[in-house]
């Protein structure tokens, strides 16, 4: 039995993204897809005393057909500003001092040229902090088939998957029948029912970067992911 998930990369994603990673045996970063503006690829939200704040990495989009993994960063100093905002907002979080040096070093080393590289760099580091040991792959390692559902199915077959775990947004287009015909089960990620944790600056907000739960709950952060109950 082998469960696989395939998702486009996000910048410092929310806890639900890490839940999908933690729920499968192998996870594929699907950055051969078209880059979309004003999406999660190059930005995410943190909590501040003035409310939610977007942290966005400036990128260059030269054509509508540009892939995520072809998208370059335009400001080499973006990581300095992001770390400054994070440090100011989370200075009073219970576990900020515990993780400060780790995050400071992480941001200092965030000098990659492409958004896909930056996202993978942070995703792997955050998985480490959350105790997630899932193998992470890049879609560029595979020969990709034509067709939205067919491409996902072919990736699953190449990985030897028996189950494909999909994000709920794919319900609009995923053809489950071709997975069924190939003997691969399809499961849907459920993002409802998350427990609240200690969080600065009420009211509580689930849809922020996973760094929020790490700074507020420390090693206990993983217990606010559903996937931690699977192991």
UniProtKB/TrEMBL annotation:
Pfam families registered for this protein in UniProt: WbqC
Source taxon at top rank: Bacteria
Q: What is this protein called?
A: WbqC-like protein
- Organism of origin is Sulfurospirillum barnesii (strain ATCC 700032 / DSM 10660 / SES-3)
Upper taxonomic lineage: Bacteria, Pseudomonadati, Campylobacterota, Epsilonproteobacteria, Campylobacterales
């Amino acid at each position: 039995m082998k469960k696989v998930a395939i998702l486009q990369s996000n910048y410092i994603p929310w806890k639900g993204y890490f839940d999908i990673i933690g729920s499968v045996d192998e996870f594929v970063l699907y950055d051969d897809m078209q880059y979309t503006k004003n999406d999660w690829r190059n930005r995410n939200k943190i909590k501040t005393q003035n409310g939610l704040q977007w942290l966005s990495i400036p990128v260059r989009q030269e054509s509508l057909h540009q892939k995520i993994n072809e998208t370059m960063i335009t400001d080499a100093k973006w990581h300095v500003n992001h770390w400054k905002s994070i440090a100011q907002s989370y200075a009073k979080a219970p576990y900020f001092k515990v993780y400060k040096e780790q995050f400071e070093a992480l941001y200092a080393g965030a000098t990659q040229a492409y958004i896909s590289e930056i996202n993978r760099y942070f995703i792997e580091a955050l998985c480490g902090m959350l105790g997630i040991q899932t193998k992470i792959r890049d879609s560029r390692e595979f020969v990709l088939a034509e067709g939205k559902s067919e491409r996902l199915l072919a990736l699953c077959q190449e990985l030897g998957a028996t189950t494909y775990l999909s994000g709920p947004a794919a319900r609009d287009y995923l053809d489950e029948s071709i997975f069924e015909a190939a003997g691969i089960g399809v499961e849907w990620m459920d993002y409802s029912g998350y427990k609240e944790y200690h969080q600065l600056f009420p009211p509580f907000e689930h849809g922020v970067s996973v760094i929020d739960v790490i700074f507020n709950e420390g090693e206990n952060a993983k217990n606010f992911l559903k996937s931690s109950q699977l192991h």
